[in-house]
């Protein structure tokens, strides 16, 4: 039995960030055994900890399964091996035992050196080119690409839990609940946006049409105008509803300003779509002064990149919408590059999509009136997301008000 | 077969308020037949309509079942009979075929006269004393009470749907959705509170502890202070959390003002309870200046009646809580007498309880972050309720702000 | 003032199907006036009713607005005019005053004849070619197409409410609630599927991945195998999870059969995608016997058409996925042609998409654990949908069990 | 500064059960400092761990606050002091600095001995009588009771997380999600009920009226009949709906068996209440054979204790209902004594109430269609609860079916 063992080590904030707990959990979930050979817990709170464990499996396959699992939690083999590469035999096809990525910071041991993997996302493969390593989606795999197989030589660094900071993440913990002091949370979010921007951070908004329905579009437009937002990721619906509201004053057939029913309510939605087709594009509508306010207007005016991804549900969709979803994913990724903070508002579809593309160290705030939506995003792997269960129509105006007071 | 027929008539806004539709529906649901003998639809929109129908059942029992059902929708027998009374044989026991009330305006035909039933509520019986008729809950039935049995001689007037008004009810229709312009709804609610008060109306708040958790308790306290509220119906939790927040600044272990974790967070809840027991009552705490702000404080200071109903879930409960629920129901009813408007905030338990005690013509606004909560209240018979699906911690401060602007 | 009037008439089950109520409502919502000139309510429940009204507006524009609105509820101008046509000046562009469709049965008066509009959907325009009329989405409009403008000559027939039938729609009414006897509803749905099929109806399933996560995929696969299903509309996720479950036995990292954690849980999802790319397509996987059971397998084996629409959230997506959403919409429509019944399971995205493509007379059943999802579909215009709020993992096996007993 | 330090120690499954993580967290949340003086992590997975820390505060008050907080997570002062007692000066009043309990296993150091506190519940005080210690609610405190003040001499043992077991808790982890294989979960719950009973465990059901509305009452009745249930805790509504269904076949006005509308639907609810008042009690109804099946019938027949707690929302309430909530709490507690497993079904009110009365080591399963309900129970301190988000009308029949197969 002693043959099926492996020494691993792990370091970092083992206790604080639950790293050791998760490793112990996984070993036990998989019915493995372990011996703690050495443990050195940081004496003070900023100190790093270190542990060396002997992992014991029932057979080689069992041991491999355990190791594969705990490597993903930050454990590293004591005797580090080189990554093993295998060539793709066909476009869009990975070798059978391809290494499937997490969204954590990842390094590989290749030609005796640790190389950081670029463009990190979850559920992808790693392609090695020369002394560079890239995280690549299956559709972008090319025949001949050298792809990492197995778990050897891959090292993950789980993110530290934020501590003693001043941001809303520390305030809320990781939970989502509607039973929190909303005005205070709005202030914390305002602070966080303000401070992120002040430090030169990049802030992206991912938004759904409920922003317009609930009357929060003026707030979002103002946030863009004030220079806080560096990109907008959405679908057809947000743009159509924003343009309908900006040009006809209605949303879902109701005059947003005074709440009366609109005469042409029913067809205003289609009218807005037609007017963009007539102009040729949203930018053209702005140029020809047909579109003079709103979220899309501010994006165009302020040169903020926006990507509208098509969906099967779209009316139209607008000429600006990228109807090919694989292409839209690539464009989303470009806008997300080096983002420090992503604010997701009332759209499960685009939020999960964006979550899938983000490394785990990017701050994610999700604002939605439905708790299960928030939960689902975290269940899909974007566990760093901070969920705020509130009414965006009331919450976003509060946030803007508080940001403007800071200026 | 022609023997099993009965002529009925109905008048009012038959089309507009769906009265005729509902009567047709019920007859068909019960597989009866009908002939429209006369119909006179109001020519203009304010005109009343009138219809006379012949109802046909398969047998006498079938006919009776149909009639019993449509009488509840406002149909009246063409040949009006006197109500039939039967004595209760025992306290808390109604005769087997007792007439079970709706929450609609109800009259009875007794000794050749139409008498209005007082104290109207749903799911009760009607007791006749001399030339007065009262709606009475089963627990208050006394041996010897003369109770109406069967459906003869009872006439119901379904409420008209509000039309062309200016209030939030007309604005929203009867639906509840989170996809509405929140700021505008807040303005409408503010207008409605303001106008109701200006006309001398009585406004009651029914509230749960989420008012405090979400940071909206200052808003509710201010609404009371400004004189808009005539009564508060709640449970132990609202009072405890309000007093904890007012005396210790915390709610659920968090400092509400700055959102930091409280040192004694865990036990502050129990501390607040103990402090009321020590003072003897909430009013004593105000008198001895131990309680100096908040919802309960404003109630005491402004002589606004409040009733705290006990529940099995209570910590404590406070000495002010009425632990006997039947007694608490009686006290709730006293406060609700002649209310024009009831605002229910984040409490399904007390909202359904209150809904059960209200006649159908009282305006009811339900504010909750959960749509199913709102739906459930309507399903339970308080169908006149207007549901606003929002975050009370953001919504109520908006309402107050807008009311104060009006003054 | 009398100049701004127009005589309209309407016939059908005016009371029963709320047609007259809705017309009165709309006139009053828009602050118009009306006079009922003639009304003839069907004497018996199967009889049709008829009404002739004089509509009065404040000015021509006001009158037009009212008329436009009530025409959509089934009112018809007494003096019927021909439709007015205008040519599209550019691909994808409709004339400014284009007629925007509803999902109701629609006829146009063209060259002295009533023509039925084909391919009916909501929120599109109507193109007339010779003596045919088609409902056309904006992206399919070609330069030169003759498009109906204004409201003249368009007649809508609102669907009757189902009455005295035996199906689940009659049983449930139009409401959605989780407080219904689930086993009985399952039986009604089973009856409805069985009877629809017996009468030669076409049944389409629209499904999300929760079918697999909740363990209901064997039930759906069996329903297909038994010949009840004529088409499957889904996205990438349903197919990937189904294939992961069929080939590796896992869903979201858990062995579905015994509920233990899977060793390779994390990467099985990506493994399933890779295996389809390796085979080239789902059909190829079936041919090469790599895929031997499940929903997708049964579709391929039984030649049931399936359409997988891409979304921005997709992992992969699979080679079978149509990544262009406009193209996917066209393929969805083909499968939906002449459907009698559509069963939507646990997917808001594809359900709303499908709802947008369906005429109002197609039966729609929506099964989801979230009540707001069901509500949202109806709010988006698919108001004929019957919502069943339940757990698909428990509900669908019940339905299958009950269908199999019938055979 | 070194004056404000204290040595503490802690032992158990420090890593696995997150004990050390929580202690580190709390110290940092409160901005304290610590030094790890000794740590001994169990070498193998069943081994206990031990740690000794030096805690450092900014001043004595700060240090005390930190200590107070971490003592609640299982830390123990190295130099153990005796508990400090203070007499209550008045009924229902605790001394100002009373020790407020958790729901964890608790011991006190009194007269040089460790004594286990009996009747453990959260948010109460501890009364010492001779060499016994009791957990006592504020309303039961008597003048003169010796009550523990401060944190000295109190030791808490946080429960271990269940590991490597076979029950549904291990299977599900602690999360609640609707995306789990329902049939498998039903099997696990069935196993757990079966095994708990086989080992002589006591199982209590806490239930709401949705059991009846969703058609699951036959399943619950059968579970009682089969001898699996040792007590039923509910409110008025469950009993009324159960008796209405058992005697009249209806629930919420619908015939549960065939789903048709009931003639007397509207008043059946009140009829059921009246029939119990007529008989005098539920037991009398069973005796006189007026009640012959259902949940309440099986309780009476099989001598299973049931407690019906009154609430402000009650119709009636039934003569069997305890209308005083403090009295009802005492009766609930009696039934809960020594329970091994509590199954909470579709009732937030009674579930939170029961959760408040349970020590943390009792297994709690919560079944509800609403995820926020499940979350709220855990947020209220019953964090050991396992949430199953499903439709009880479909889930419970599955559980029964699977239990019966085992017999």
Task: Record the SSE blueprint.
The structure is a homotetramer of 407-residue chains.
Chain A (H helix, E strand, L loop, with lengths): L4 E8 L6 H11 L3 E8 L8 E8 L3 H12 L4 E2 L6 E4 L17 E6 L2 E6 L6 E5 L2 E5 L9 E4 L4 E4 L10 H5 L9 H17 L4 E5 L2 H4 L3 H9 L5 E5 H13 L1 E2 L2 E2 L9 H15 L2 H6 L7 H7 L4 E4 L15 H12 L4 E5 L2 H10 L5 E6 L2 H9 L6 E4 L2 H15 L1
Parallel strand pairs in A: 7-9, 12-13, 12-17, 13-16, 17-18, 18-19
Antiparallel strand pairs in A: 1-3, 1-4, 2-3, 5-10, 6-7, 6-11, 8-9, 14-15
Helix pairs in contact in A: 4-14, 6-10, 6-14, 7-8, 12-13
What does this protein look like?
Four copies of one chain form a homotetramer. The longest helix of chain A is centred in the middle third of the chain and has 17 residues, at 182-198. Chain A has helices spanning 19-29, 60-71, 168-172, 182-198, 210-213, 217-225, 236-248, 265-279, 282-287, 295-301, 325-336, 348-357, 371-379, 392-406, and strands at 5-12, 33-40, 49-56, 76-77, 84-87, 105-110, 113-118, 125-129, 132-136, 146-149, 154-157, 203-207, 231-235, 250-251, 254-255, 306-309, 341-345, 363-368, 386-389. In chain A, helix 6 runs parallel beside helix 14 and helix 7 crosses helix 8. The termini of chain A are far apart. In chain A, the strands form five sheets. Chain A has a six-stranded parallel β-sheet, with helices on both faces. Chain A folds into three domains: 1-78, LOR/SDH bifunctional enzyme, conserved domain (Alpha-Beta Plaits); 80-160, conserved putative lor/sdh protein from methanococcus maripaludis s2 domain (conserved putative lor/sdh protein from methanococcus maripaludis s2 fold, Beta Barrel), CATH 2.40.420.10; 168-406, 3-Layer(aba) Sandwich (Rossmann fold). By secondary structure, the first copy, chain A, is α/β, with parallel strands linked by helices. The interface between B and D is large, with 59 and 59 residues.
């Amino acid at each position: 039995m002693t043959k099926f063992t492996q020494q691993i080590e792990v370091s970092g904030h083992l206790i604080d960030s639950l790293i050791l707990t998760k490793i112990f959990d996984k070993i036990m979930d998989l019915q493995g055994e372990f011996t703690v050979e050495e443990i050195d817990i940081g004496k003070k709170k900023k100190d790093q900890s270190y542990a060396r464990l002997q992992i014991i499996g029932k057979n080689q396959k069992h041991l491999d399964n355990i190791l594969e699992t705990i490597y993903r939690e930050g454990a590293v083999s004591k005797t580090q091996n080189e990554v093993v590469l295998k060539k793709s035999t066909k476009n869009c096809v990975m070798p059978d035992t391809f290494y499937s990525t997490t969204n954590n910071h990842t390094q590989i041991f290749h030609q005796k050196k640790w190389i950081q993997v670029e463009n990190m996302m979850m559920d992808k493969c790693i392609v090695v080119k020369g002394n560079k390593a890239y995280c690549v989606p299956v559709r972008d795999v090319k025949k001949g690409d050298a792809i990492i197989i197995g778990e050897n030589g891959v090292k993950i660094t789980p993110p530290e839990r934020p501590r003693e900071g001043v941001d809303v993440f520390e305030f809320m913990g990781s939970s989502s609940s509607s039973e929190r002091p909303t005005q205070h949370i709005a202030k914390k979010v305002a602070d966080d946006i303000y401070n992120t921007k002040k430090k030169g951070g990049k802030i992206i908004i991912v938004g759904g049409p409920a922003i317009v329905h609930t009357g929060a579009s003026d707030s979002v437009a103002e946030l863009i105008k004030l220079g806080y937002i560096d990109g907008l990721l959405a679908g057809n619906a947000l743009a159509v509803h924003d343009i309908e509201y900006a040009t006809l004053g209605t949303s879902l057939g109701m005059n947003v300003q005074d709440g009366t029913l609109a005469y042409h309510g029913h067809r205003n939605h289609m009218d807005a779509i037609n007017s963009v087709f007539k102009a040729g594009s949203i930018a053209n509508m702005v140029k020809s002064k047909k579109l003079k306010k709103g979220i899309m207007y501010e994006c165009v005016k302020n040169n903020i990149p926006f990507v509208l991804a098509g969906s099967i549900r779209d009316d139209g969709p607008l000429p600006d919408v990228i109807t090919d979803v694989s292409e839209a994913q690539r464009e989303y990724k470009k806008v997300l590059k080096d983002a420090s903070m992503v604010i997701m508002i009332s759209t499960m579809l685009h939020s999960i999509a964006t979550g899938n593309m983000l490394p785990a160290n990017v701050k994610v705030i999700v604002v939605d009136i439905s708790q299960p939506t928030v939960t689902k995003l975290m269940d899909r792997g974007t566990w760093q997301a901070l969920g705020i269960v509130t009414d965006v129509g009331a919450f976003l105006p509060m946030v803007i008000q508080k940001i403007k007071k800071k200026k």
